[in-house]
Amino acid sequence: MATIIVSMSDVKPSRRRYRSEHRTRQAASTRSAILDAARGLFPERGYAGTTVAAIAAAAGVAAITVYSTFGSKRALLQQLIHIAITGDEDPAPIIQRDEPRAVMALTDQPAQIGAFAEGIAAIMERVAPLLAVLADASRTEPDMVGQYNDMLRARRRSMQEVAVAIARNGPLREGVSVDSAADTIWALTSAEMMLLFTQRLDWSRQQYAAWLARSLTALLLPPRHRT
């Protein structure tokens, strides 16, 4: 019978690989737990009222783990907002994702506005409560002002691309420029507007999306497109 000799160096890599994979899974689980805890606490308690200690306790980890994973409470909120907008932690902007690109590629203006309204309503349903936390924090936390303003500017740039795509498919209403169209889209899709309808008036996301599509069609397109 042949003798098979296996040295210790032959088995170490697989053990190290197992330990590495285990640590990776554990780190991902910890990160997810922290995100879930913060996602629930921020809208409930506000930015100032949501301490790192409270997030850690809700996630079942030590406060130092929150810091080592995200760096700061501000960075954690920023990551939550990004995930709510894009659906994942990939850093690619939402405007570069498949669904928004498909909307931008539509060639019928009313259909394009309708698809955009449905998509943005779904996004705002997730992110509006977190944006409200950020807006509130910017009024009392000096280090949050820049983050809030950056978010507003980034959203305005995205709405400019939407307006350009709509204008590419036909004329806008008389007196409406691409820039003013972008301003209108930006205003009507704000977190404040979404929360006004869904929280104050108890509208569903679908009702908001339908209203948004009608409003944008009436405000941006020539009369022949209105129903």
Keywords:
single chain, 227 residues, mainly alpha, Arc Repressor Mutant, subunit A, 2 domains, disordered N terminus
Give a verbal description of the structure.
It is a single chain. Residues 1-11 have low confidence and may be disordered. This protein is mainly α. Helices cover 78% and strands 0% of the residues. The radius of gyration is 23 Å and the shape is elongated. Helix 2 (52-59) crosses helix 3 (63-70). It has two domains: 20-71, Homeodomain-like (Arc Repressor Mutant, subunit A, Orthogonal Bundle), CATH 1.10.10.60; 85-225.
Task: Write a brief structural summary.
The protein is mainly alpha-helical and 227 residues long.
- Percent helix, as a range, is over 70%
The largest sheet, given as strand count, sense and whether it forms a barrel, is: none
Uncertain stretches: 1-11
Given the helix and strand composition, which structural class is it? mainly alpha
- Write down the secondary-structure element order: HHHHHHHHHH
Share in β-strands: under 5%
Shape: elongated
Distance between the termini: 87 Å
Summed up, the domain count is 2
Mean pLDDT comes to 90
Total beta strands: 0
- Individual helix count: 10
Helix-strand layout with pairing:
Layout lengths: L7 H42 L2 H8 L3 H8 L2 H14 L11 H8 L3 H32 L1 H27 L9 H11 L2 H10 L4 H16 L7
